[in-house]
């Protein structure tokens, strides 16, 4: 069967932008779920009467589920297709959002957050892989950046929703609104974007590489024509078949190598994932409202600061999207690593000036408080324009076809575990020493500079079949 590619370049580009954006809604759910808990933390603590340790476990419970979801998504995506994984993730997220809205105990809330985490882990693994497989090489970096753009938009929208709900409830997340406490509405509202993701997952096409692997060549030609435009479709099919012929279904044992038990490229993927989290970025998005409240800022203003941080996050991501295919992945990552190191070190200094004004309350001097606010925003900016985008782009690119799904699962699972470690430890670390916690994050940012220089190789403009 011969399929004629669309003659107009803009037509196929518009189509691939649409389906990439639809797939990236999985990232929107990731960001929304990650940050929605930010506004609910104080309400959850007060409702269930829990301390720092239990709060950390409830907040981080989703991350354990995410590690599990990411680990199983690769195998399921290879067996049943990318779209099945997206649809399952969306369904689980809708159900868990309603469950988290009506918890009768703290452990039940943690359970529903684990379920939502499984959904987010699955979506976080399959979305960048799907986008990488449908995107033409010339646009792949920018299209893959949609994942991170969707994440930061999800964070921002969740903060906006949280702020609006808190304002309607009189500025306190424990206040009632239509029969429920405000923080319950915050968690339940996540079902809306999940339902939208499910709708889009029902209408976008399957990955052409999966269709070729599954023997559905006519459908693969049609999809390639839609996303790549005026190309020799038969030649592209043969190119994909040749790549697939040299491989088998990826398994975890295929990732074994001589370097501490894994292939070096797998360790690079794990390193990218772990360092992205160990610089402490999600402390800003999970705990910032509680953090600023703890140093003397009102609850409503703390939510407003969290919203402004999310806007900076979006601006940084747009900068990264504009430059990731122009100057490359490695230079962006290096710029971000250096900027984060100095910003985090400055934040650590500012928080070291905090003094207690009560048993559970501290204050920053005015000047140091302004420094902390400013450097928190510059830190988010440097992260967003670099590691926030580059990691997701490179995880979709760096692995050879024969191990991509399995390696992606391991790398993304490592990311969620690292995220969990940071999230579960921050409440206790901040009680011990808020400044000390940020010293630790700044050290990992400095290590990320060395990692970029030593281990990252540029992937700009290369076809996925060239990755070796």
Q: Could you write a compact summary of the structure shown?
A:
With 468 residues, this protein is mainly α. It is 75% helix and 2% strand. The protein is globular.
List keywords for this structure.
468 residues, mainly alpha, two-stranded antiparallel sheet, two-stranded antiparallel ribbon, 2% strand, disordered N terminus
Description of the molecule:
The protein is mainly α and 468 residues long. Helix content is 75%, strand content 2%. The protein has 18 helices and 4 strands. The strands form 2 sheets. A two-stranded antiparallel ribbon has the order 1-2. Strand 1 and strand 2 form a beta hairpin. Helix 2 runs antiparallel to helix 5 and helix 12 packs across helix 18. The longest helix is centred in the last third of the chain and has 52 residues. The protein is globular, with a radius of gyration of 22 Å. It starts with 8 loop residues before the first helix and ends in a 13-residue tail after the last helix. The relative contact order is 0.15. The N terminus is likely disordered.
Layout of SSEs?
Blueprint: H1 9-23, H2 25-48, H3 52-80, H4 82-101, H5 106-134, H6 140-168, E1 176-177, E2 180-181, H7 182-188, H8 191-201, H9 208-213, H10 217-228, H11 233-245, H12 264-278, H13 281-294, H14 299-323, H15 329-351, E3 355-358, E4 361-363, H16 366-384, H17 387-395, H18 404-455
Antiparallel strand pairs: 1-2, 3-4
Helix pairs in contact: 1-5, 1-6, 1-10, 2-5, 2-6, 2-7, 2-8, 2-13, 3-4, 3-5, 3-18, 4-5, 4-7, 4-8, 5-6, 5-18, 6-7, 6-14, 6-17, 10-11, 12-17, 12-18, 13-14, 14-16, 15-16, 15-17, 15-18
